[in-house]
Amino acid sequence: MSETFNNGSLGLYLIAGAIILFVLVQSIFFLVKAWKQGKKLGLDKSKLRNAVTSSALFTIPSALSVLATVIALAPALGLVIPWVRLSVIGNLMYETTAAEAAMEAFGHTGGIANAVTDPTVYAGIAWVMTLGICFSLVILPFLAKPLHKKFMAASNKEASAEAAPADGKKKRTIGEFINKFATPAIFIGLIGAFIARSINGRGALDDNKQPIFGDGDGAGVLSVCTLIVAIVFSILLEILVKKLKLTWLEPFIMPIGMIVAMIAAIILYNVLPADIATFEWRG
Amino acid sequence: MAKNKTEKSYFDRVHSWGRISSVTALCILLMFPMAICLYLDVSPDIKFILQGLLKLIPTYWTVAVVEVLVYTPMLGAGGTYLSFVTGNIANLKLPCAISAMEGAKVKANSEEGEVISTIAIATSAIVTTIVLAIGIIAFAPFLDSFTKSPLLKPAFDQVIPALFGALGAGYFIKHWRISFFPIIIMIIVLVFSPGMGASTLLFFGIVASVGGALAMHKLGWLDNVKD
């Protein structure tokens, strides 16, 4: 089964469009309801309008980085699946991981750099990516209301709870750990998997199950240099933003860092001697 | 007292709308792969789907529970339901809501905060959807020439280190203490199994990252880290 198909056909776009339309309608519904409630509460119209304007401006650069992820997944999956997956529940980290896991399960070698040409595999990947991510929507209707009510009740006692402990010693509880560090630790674990693969991972194997050196999908000079440029440039930009108080630039750090690193990859590929630029230690 | 009554009924209504919209979103989301199968007239092997899911479910479903527990108090009722349908919470919806509430000088746990947070997240979701739609419609005709261009090929080959390096930088600068250990562990794992995919590798990463961070927290090494 190696029948090829068009992963950008009008039919697939229409399916995606219908789903995206639901997201839009839902967002507009909540926006209108909240706006009306704000007016009922006597909130100044300018405050409500500012919330819309600042959120829109804040969102544009991050939305561009989401678009960059759609484009990153496009060589393998076309635009339709990444578009839907990153518009509903999706996340920059989760979708790339989910796509890789689905491709591995269906025996698609070479990861997200190689096109999926088999429609059965394509549909299977859509199933894995969808089922993998949907659990929050299963539990949310049961958990959100009790959690929210508990928080509202607890917040009234917040001030007294924040007072220093009577014995003067700092208590390092599991609750504090979950609240402050569990989510960043999980994110770092997720991000770290891709970073570690860029440093020491192997790419696709050939038909004889041997590593292919220099094809650009394994860890090597170019992947490590790109990674270093992305991290260092983004960190420097973040420091600059904090020092010069350029808060408007803050949301642009990630997309700028990514684009600069990709440009660096092109420059290094063309400037370095070919045997160094394409050198991969794991194939 | 009257205000309290209004507050209750507004929150109750938000939860009713949120529950209905979450269930509807779930159904619509599941119809997506179904529609693809019908449209392409294919039926992928369930065995492979389960194989793929087995790699994701232990992490993703656990993260889903953690995220619901952690984000719900921060996002408010309406913001929570909207955020979990539209995604990109940590990198987009949450900072957006916090920034809007700070700008409006309202507290997260007040009804005013609830309103501003919902408006911010709804706006963010609408803008993201529009930017993606415009980007995709504009980009679709050039996709092939873009990704297959010999000049741009090295950039697209290296999109993973570029994307995750830039995305990770923000976390590394704030949480550098807990970042080194999991990455070193995963590099060591790759020494022995270089072909291990990222989706399998991340188990080692998350266990090392959460375990390492918990140990550092207990030892007091993270006491000076600010929220």
List the helices and strands and how they pair.
The complex is a heterodimer of chains A (283) and B (227).
Chain A: H1 10-40, H2 45-77, H3 80-87, H4 92-105, H5 119-133, H6 135-155, H7 158-161, H8 174-200, H9 221-243, H10 253-271, H11 274-277
Helix pairs in contact in A: 1-3, 2-3, 4-5, 9-10
Chain B: H1 2-40, H2 46-75, H3 77-86, H4 89-104, H5 111-139, H6 143-147, H7 153-157, H8 159-174, H9 176-192, H10 198-219
Helix pairs in contact in B: 1-3, 2-3, 3-4, 3-5, 4-5, 8-9, 9-10
Description of the molecule:
The complex is a heterodimer of chains A (283) and B (227). With 283 residues, chain A is an all-alpha fold. Chain A has helices at 10-40, 45-77, 80-87, 92-105, 119-133, 135-155, 158-161, 174-200, 221-243, 253-271, 274-277. Chain A folds into 2 domains: 1-156, no CATH class; 201-283, no CATH class. In chain A, helix 1 (10-40) runs parallel beside helix 3 and helix 4 packs across helix 5. The mean pLDDT of chain B is 85. Chain B folds into 3 domains: 1-62; 71-149, no CATH class; 158-219, no CATH class. Chain B is mostly helical and 227 residues long. Chain B starts with a helix and ends in an 8-residue tail after the last helix. At the A-B interface, helix 1, helix 2, helix 3, helix 4 and helix 5 of A face helix 1, helix 2, helix 3, helix 4 and helix 5 of B.
